[in-house]
Specification:
globular; 7 strands; seven-stranded parallel beta sheet; 267 residues
């Protein structure tokens, strides 16, 4: 689906990849409803966009089912019926083993990553099915197909999102709606801080990890290119692409490699 003159809802638009996608969609001629829990972040995005009435901000907690259910109609009052949902809002967990995580941390990750995704898809899908053409983009993770020590709950939530995207794509066959799953690897964003998670890493290890990080702008271009091409999935970053191939060939070896790279990060 081409974005020009389309109305696109972008979650996580207050920072990181969500902000980059919102700005790139505007550059491609869309009107954008930016959704985020942070009013300040959305204000910053609006200032960077300088897009006038083509950008509108909606402060919404995506774990709030009632608030999410009202969102399509609220956006329609401003722009008209939505043509696409690009869902990027998510959080990671503290870098702890499963046995050391408290229930509150586990429930918070699933509330945002799983229930937030489900609420949004169920709220927007009826509207999208009535459009001439429409698109849903959900974001999984490299951690959703390969085990990452210290991010087990996050990975489980993103594995669930992967299936929650692929199955509705099959269900939407023969309708105007196309569905794409995005699978990012390491991203150069503030996701840990935005998730309330600190990372203890020495400068040498940080420099090594940074080499494999994809910028938010590069990710945004890849995501919207995939949307334009109605892609089944979009792998973001060299690390995600390589590990996708490696894991298919040698699951145990791929998992061991990731475990070695995570050594020292997990408490």
């Amino acid at each position: 689906m081409k974005l020009e003159d389309k109305i696109i809802t972008v979650t996580g638009a207050g920072n990181g990849v969500g902000r980059a996608v919102a700005l790139e969609a505007l550059r491609r001629g869309a009107r954008v409803a930016g959704v985020d829990i942070s009013a300040h972040g959305l204000e910053e995005t609006a200032g960077l966009a300088a897009a006038g009435d083509r950008f509108a901000s909606y402060v919404v907690d995506i774990t709030d089912k009632a608030a999410v259910s009202e969102l399509p109609a609220t956006i329609a009052e401003r722009f008209g019926a939505v043509d696409g949902l690009v869902h990027l809002a998510a959080i990671i967990q503290p870098f702890l083993k499963v046995k050391d995580l408290d229930d509150a941390a586990i429930e918070r990750v699933f509330a945002v990553n799983w229930w937030g995704t489900l609420h949004l898809n169920r709220a927007f899908l009826p509207v999208l099915l009535d459009r001439p053409e429409a698109h849903i983009v959900n974001t999984s993770s490299m951690g959703g197909f390969i085990p990452v020590p210290g991010q087990t709950i996050y990975g489980a939530s993103k594995a669930a999102v992967k299936l929650l995207t692929e199955a509705p794509r099959a269900e939407c066959r023969g309708t105007p709606v196309r569905v794409t799953v995005v699978i990012p690897g390491g991203m150069a964003t503030n996701m840990p801080a935005n998730s309330g998670v600190s990372i203890a890493v020495d400068p040498e290890q940080a420099a090594k990890l940074a080499k494999n990080l994809t910028t938010a702008d590069a990710a945004a271009r890849a995501i919207l290119d995939g949307m334009t091409k109605n892609a089944y999935r979009v792998l973001i970053g060299r690390d995600a692409k390589l590990m996708d191939l490696f894991y298919r060939v040698n699951p145990s070896g791929a998992a061991a490699l990731i475990a070695r790279q995570m050594k020292g990060l997990v408490a």
